[in-house]
Amino acid sequence: MDDVQGMRVALVLATASGGLGRHVRAVSEGLAARGARVVVCGPGETERTYGFTRKGVRFAEVDIADRPRPAGDLAAVRRLRGLLRGADVVHAHGLRAGGMAVLARGRLDGLRLEAGPPVLVTLHNEAPSGGLAGAAYAALERIVARGATGVLGVSPDLEERMRALGAREVGHAIVPAPPLDAPEPGARERLREELGAGDAQVVLTVARLAPQKGLPVLLDAVQRLGTSAPLFLIAGDGPLDGELRERIATADLPVRLLGRRTDVAELLAACDIVAVPSLWEGQPLFVQEALRAGRPLIATATGGVPGLVGDAAVLVPPSDAAALAAALKGVMSDPGRAVRLGAAAAQRATALPTDDDAVDQLAAYYRGFLPG
After folding, report:
1. Residue 1 domain-assigned?
2. Does one domain contain both 145 and 291?
3. Which of 36, 58, 263, 279 would bridge 4 by S-S if both were Cys, CB 3.0 to 4.6 A apart?
């Protein structure tokens, strides 16, 4: 275990939701517990959501939005420049935060860092492409690749992208899901009764209702299944809520939108199959939770998902409703296969990393960046 006692670590993030914010909180707590002096720099709403200061971590507000804003970004860089002065290591999470941290921490010479503390950047998501926003993100990718001391990616495609852009050191990030509490006794029967599932098979998806999650493709697959379709449950909220509800009602699909839920462990106990139709994912927390619950899993072969699940899931191409429908039908119609998939998922879960593993990895990087 690498020693971080007394090390001054600045963690930087932009507006965040879900797994990224939770990961930064876990890392900050783990580092502080090992004696590091940690400050988290990010928008005020991230402190209100994740409570970084509850575990001996200092928080400094910096308005780093999740979309390019020329004037706001310049102000964020200026604010960060003062906050990062004196840090031993800067670790930014996400491309936006990474670009701001690189620009704030020292002088750039041809996009190569010449001064200031070392900067590690973890990339958690695929960068948007096309249009003005795509051009802005492409510029940030080049700044991070050429200016950061090291880059970690949550998926092989992100790692290869950084290598192609000239990053000096690239590694694979560890982003564990927290262990779920065990479901209460009788949770499966109670929830299935509440949801009106009866004896029907239940397919569960937990996702933000956003384009990246591929939920319209899932609805296409439901329509292809026709009268053989089971009950589909989608837990989460987001900008596509109205569009999805309208389509479900118009086509009279056996799909229920549950909104944001805090009882994921119980939902996993109540379902028979888990479906993850995302167009892209890194190391999705819900996939890790499904593995730990020992549920048969059908997911898209994209980003970091194949490396995460190994042979413990049925993988289909993203955006392929026909393949997704066929995979669902294959598992639904073969109880023995479903049992085998569930057992493989539970076995795969025993090899999933923990928060301690993530902090061990980062501590080693931090120490390696420092002289002596």
Report:
1. no
2. no
3. 36
